Amino acid sequence: VNSLIGKEIPADTIRTILGALDIKIEAEEGDLWRVAVPPYRVDVTREADLVEEILRIYGYNNIPVPSHVNSALSYAPKPDRNKLMNLAADFLTANGFTEIMSNSLTKAAYYEGLTSYKPEHCVKILNPLSNDLNVMRQTLLFNMLEAVQLNTNHRNGDLKLYEFGNCYFYDATAATPEEPLKAYSEQFRLAIAVTGIAAPLSWNRKPEQASFFTLRA
Asked: What pTM did the predictor assign?
């Protein structure tokens, strides 16, 4: 009782309160009491409920308010990635999106002439199986566009897709003789694509064509 309330209440006072509540004390062993709660008190099912009943009769106003509160704070240096990913995946799936999983290998030709993803930053495969799988992807964009093209060619143009995945980069200037692997890095990314009809026909609205603002909203 005293540990939950934060104040010492005399044992005789507690006995008097329990008697007034028709709660019988069956046994006492030091600070441990065994009591019998009347069957009609279905709201008293645990120790905390019993302490609440004692405090209600004793009077909340008789419990002093402390001048300060002790609290333990947990420190997290950054949000947990898996937790954030699961939250985002649940949200997207609940809004009609389908998750895809594509190959981390792609073709170097996609990056020729690009300035955002320069060809020299591609992680190259030493013995590629084909020219379509000769570098590691720097972005999820091309894999997503391949999925959109494949579905569109099969007359499935109304798509809402998303993908989580790692992207890989090579920067020769970051390497040192002692740590040559510093030239390689990877980043976790999310790609989302919407094509065709974003919202299907319903009795209270017309079909809504997907646009940039569909994702922006």
From this structure: 0.59
